[in-house]
Amino acid sequence: MKVTHTTAVRAPAAQVRELVADVRWWPLLFENIVHVEVLARSDDADRLRLWAVDVDAAFAAAASTGRDTAAPGVLRSWTARRTFGRTGVPTIAFRQEAPQPPLLSMGGTWEFRAVPGTDTCEVTLTHEVEADGGTDRHPWVRPMVEGATDSQLAGLRAAAHLPYGIDRSVADLSAAVGVHGGTAAPHDVLANLDTLPATSDTLRVPLAPDAFLAAEPGRRGFRLTVCLGLPGGRVVTKRLRPPAALLALVDEWTVNPGTGSAGGPQAGVHRRALLSATRHGRPGHDRVAERLRSCLAADARDRLQRLAALSTVAA
Q1: Quick check: 183 pLDDT over 50?
Q2: How many other CB atoms sit within 10 Å of the CB of residue 137?
Q3: pTM (2 decimals)?
Q4: 49, pLDDT greater than 90
Q5: 11 touches 115 (CB < 8 A)
Q6: Mean pLDDT, to the nearest integer, of 302-314?
Q7: Would you tell me which of 15, 86, 106, 238 could form a disulfide with 99, CB atoms 3.0–4.6 Å apart?
Q8: Do the Cβ atoms of 159 and 274 come closer than 8 Å?
Q9: How many Cα atoms occupy the beta-carbon half-sphere of 138 within 13 Å?
């Protein structure tokens, strides 16, 4: 099965290609991407580990499952290889190393074609998929690929069309606080992360042995955060469908032993948020952006202090 979508992007082809090539942006650009790790890299290729969430399925799971009831299939992880073509039309080809059954192969190509005489380009995203017995035997495959393609192109357009560029539209913040984790492993300290939305009604919906959804009921449905444990005592969290002022909100939490002021463990958070064009592009955008950054920083510090308090109680 081959699925091809093309969209126009109001930005130079080289600039748009770099957004796709640099996977640091992916959790901010693409709604379904939670985290990407670069396993190997050369000038013309790389190898990646990716974690992605089915956003619609996550909200459905939060609404239908009970506390500590697993929701398998919402979060997927895979390893992929990419190769970069720089002659002629710039391309980025990708292929999963070991697709999950019943898929036999999953790959494709990004193409970035400049429109002569303009600063616009055409971006074509093609997926090629093979499944055991043919994709027609698995009716969920085409909607999954079509949905992922539409979502990725929409995220790419939104980022490329930011009026002041993605660099100025990202709030990049860090904070740290000492915690009383004793000899506990970092993930034990960070296990309290699902309580940080901080209501007694918060649900913890397991997705995998190292991942869960923190689902906080609200007036307009659930506020969902994916929490993913990673090697080295790290936890990555991503807010799904954040408030209108943000296009994306991603945190990376760490606990480092013996780095706190009293020689104990220290918890830290690196927060990245992509500010939306509707807020960041108005007159006085600098003041709006600064207020958003201040709110995001204050919220990160507050969550760290609550994490420290919870670790003290646990100790």
Answers
A1: no
A2: 10
A3: 0.87
A4: yes
A5: no
A6: 70
A7: 106
A8: yes
A9: 16
249 is written with which tokens?
């909100």
Write out the E strands in the chain: 2-9, 33-41, 45-53, 75-85, 91-96, 103-114, 121-131, 170-178, 203-208, 211-218, 221-230, 234-240, 246-256, 266-275
Can you tell me which residue has the tokens 């939104």?
158
Tokens of residue 160, six digits: 């490329």
* 198 pLDDT higher than 60: no
Q: What is the CA radius of gyration of the chain?
A: 21
The Cα–Cα gap between 38 and 24 comes to 9
CA dihedral 254, 243, 206, 237 (to 10 degrees): -10
CA pair distance 120, 22, nearest whole angstrom: 20
Return the HEC string of 47-101: EEEEEEECHHHHHHHHHHCCCCCCCCCCEEEEEEEEEEECCCCCEEEEEECCCCC
> Residue 39's CB: how many other CB atoms inside 10 A?
11
**Cα angle value 51/54/58 (rounded, 5°):** 110
